[in-house]
């Protein structure tokens, strides 16, 4: 059942879809299907960005979820080699003052992304 007036519900559905695509990408990678894996990761990223946009469009932003969805979207972007997008997503998430544990995770991921950017 769809609840179009509830953006948090739509965000959760999009996030669940992203996690499903990510799981599919891992399985495809395990089986050696690199090109199809890339497509599944692209769909995971698109779904996670959609989820993030639903949350950011809410009147009362759910900060823990926004940080979490940003982290996943940044991870998918980095896995696809789009380090600039990953960095932007992480910078935006950190600007929202996430909880300390999430902030530490975002900073670790940001350091990895910045290292990848320097090597690219």
Brief synopsis:
The chain is built from 5 helices and no strands.
Characterise this structure.
The chain has one domain: Serine Threonine Protein Phosphatase 5, Tetratricopeptide repeat (Alpha Horseshoe), CATH 1.25.40. It is built from 5 helices and no strands. The protein has helices spanning 7-30, 34-56, 63-79, 83-95, 100-119. It is flat, with a radius of gyration of 15 Å. The model has no long low-confidence stretch (mean pLDDT 92).
SSE map:
Layout: H1 7-30, H2 34-56, H3 63-79, H4 83-95, H5 100-119
Helix pairs in contact: 1-2, 2-3, 3-4, 3-5, 4-5
Overall spatial form: flat
Note the main sheet: none
Indicate the proportion of strand residues. Answer: under 5%
Number of strands: 0
* Total domains: 1
Structural class of the secondary structure composition? mainly alpha
The CATH level-2 architecture is identified as Alpha Horseshoe
N-C termini distance: 44 Å
Write the CATH fold name: Serine Threonine Protein Phosphatase 5, Tetratricopeptide repeat
CATH superfamily: Tetratricopeptide repeat domain
- Computed Rg: 15 Å
Low-confidence stretches: none
CATH class: Mainly Alpha
H/E element string?
HHHHH
Number of helices: 5
């Amino acid at each position: 059942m769809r609840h179009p007036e509830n953006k948090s519900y739509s965000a959760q559905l999009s996030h669940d879809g992203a996690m499903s695509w990510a799981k599919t990408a891992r399985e495809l990678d395990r089986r050696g299907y690199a090109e199809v894996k890339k497509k599944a990761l692209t769909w995971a990223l698109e779904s996670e960005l959609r989820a993030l946009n639903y949350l950011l469009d809410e009147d009362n932003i759910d900060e823990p979820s926004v940080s979490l969805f940003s982290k996943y979207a940044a991870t998918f972007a980095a896995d696809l080699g789009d380090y600039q997008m990953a960095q932007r997503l992480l910078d935006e998430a950190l600007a929202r003052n996430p909880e300390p544990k999430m902030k530490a995770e975002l900073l670790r991921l940001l350091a990895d992304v910045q290292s990848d950017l320097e090597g690219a």
